Amino acid sequence: MVESLLGGRYRLGACLGGGGMADVYRAMDTRLERVVAVKVFRQGTDRTGRERFEEEARLLAGLSHPGLVPVFDASASGDELYLVMQLVEGRTLADVIAAGPMPPAEVAELGRRLADVLTYVHDNGIVHRDVKPSNVLIGNDGRVFLADFGISRLIDAVGRMTASGVILGTATYMAPEQVHGSGIGHPTDVYALGLVLLECVTGRTEFPGSGTEAALARLTRSPHVPDTLPEPLRSALRAMTAAAPEQRPSAEQCADLLSGEATELIPVTEPVRPHTRQLPAPVAAQPRGRKWRWPLAGVAALALLIGLLFFLQRPEPAAVPQLPAVSGAPGVERLPQDLANLESLVR
C-alpha cells in the first residue's frame, strides 16, 4: 500500500492546533528528513484565490528575521492548500500567562523582542493583524517567535474572512480603528502588542467577553494600565494603547521605550516621529540681572590665581654689596687698604 503524503513529500503526524481556517500538524519532510510544522487550510478556494495565496506565501518566505518562524514551502495545487514552516519546540505565550502574571522586567524584555520583529516586518510593508498570546512562541531554548506572520494576508487571498475564524476570534486584541472599520495599519499591531504585554503583567485579559462585547468595550474605555508598574513599562503600555492610531509610537519606538533607551515619550499631540531619542533639553534662560554674575566671578578668580603664581615664582632680589669698615684715619697710611677694598668691590 502506497503511503499518502501531503504534496508527495510531507507525512502528517499529530495535530498541534487549529482555528476556523486551518489546522497545524507536526509533520516529517521525507525529502530532507526533518520535522516541520504544516498549516493545512480548508478546501473551497477558487483558482484566483489560490494564485493570490501562492503569491503571498512567496512574500512571506522571503522574510528573514530571528524572531520570525521561517516559511519553507507552500502549495495551492489540486485540493491541497498548505504552508510548511519551522517547527518550534516549546510553549505559546498563552500557556505562560495561564500560569500567572509575569515579572515586569521579563515582560519588558519580551515586548522589546516582539517590537523588534514588528519593526522588521513593518519595514517590509506587512501588517500582522493577529498579534495575540497564542501566536507568540517561546522555544525551549528561550528564543521568542511571532508566528502566523501574514497569515491574515493569506486568509484574505483565499477569500474566507469568517467571523468565527478571523474577526471574532481575535476581537480581544483588536484596535479601536478595527472596530470602527476605519482601516488597518502598523499602529494596529502596536495596539495589539500593548494589550498582550498588559495581559502578561496582570495575568488577565483586558477586554474579556464574547467577540462583539470585547470589540465594543475598547470604544467606551481605555485599557487600565496599573500605576504600580515600573517605568519604562508603564509609560510604554499607555502610549501603545492610545485610542488614536496616530498617537501611538511606531514599533521601532516601542522597542526603544521598553528597553529604556528612550528617555522621553513623544507627546501625543504631535505626529509620531521615526525615532524616540530626544535632543538635550535647552538650558533655561537666566534672569537679566544675574546673567553675567558667575562669568565675572570666574574671571576675577582666574586673575587672582595668575597673580599669586607670578608672586610665588618671582626671583629673589640680588643682595646689595656692603662697604667694608673704615680701615683707619684718613691719610697716606690708609691708602693701601683702601685700594684693596676698592678692588674687592669691583670684583
Automatic annotation (TrEMBL):
<feature type="binding site">
    <location>
        <position position="39"/>
    </location>
    <ligand>
        <name>ATP</name>
    </ligand>
</feature>
<keyword id="KW-0067">ATP-binding</keyword>
<protein>
    <recommendedName>
        <fullName>Protein kinase domain-containing protein</fullName>
    </recommendedName>
</protein>
<feature type="domain" description="Protein kinase">
    <location>
        <begin position="10"/>
        <end position="266"/>
    </location>
</feature>
<dbReference type="Pfam" id="PF00069">
    <property type="entry name" value="Pkinase"/>
</dbReference>
<feature type="transmembrane region" description="Helical">
    <location>
        <begin position="292"/>
        <end position="312"/>
    </location>
</feature>
<keyword id="KW-0547">Nucleotide-binding</keyword>
<keyword id="KW-1133">Transmembrane helix</keyword>
<dbReference type="InterPro" id="IPR008271">
    <property type="entry name" value="Ser/Thr_kinase_AS"/>
</dbReference>
<dbReference type="InterPro" id="IPR000719">
    <property type="entry name" value="Prot_kinase_dom"/>
</dbReference>
<keyword id="KW-0812">Transmembrane</keyword>
<dbReference type="InterPro" id="IPR011009">
    <property type="entry name" value="Kinase-like_dom_sf"/>
</dbReference>
<keyword id="KW-0418">Kinase</keyword>
<keyword id="KW-0808">Transferase</keyword>
<keyword id="KW-0472">Membrane</keyword>
<dbReference type="InterPro" id="IPR017441">
    <property type="entry name" value="Protein_kinase_ATP_BS"/>
</dbReference>
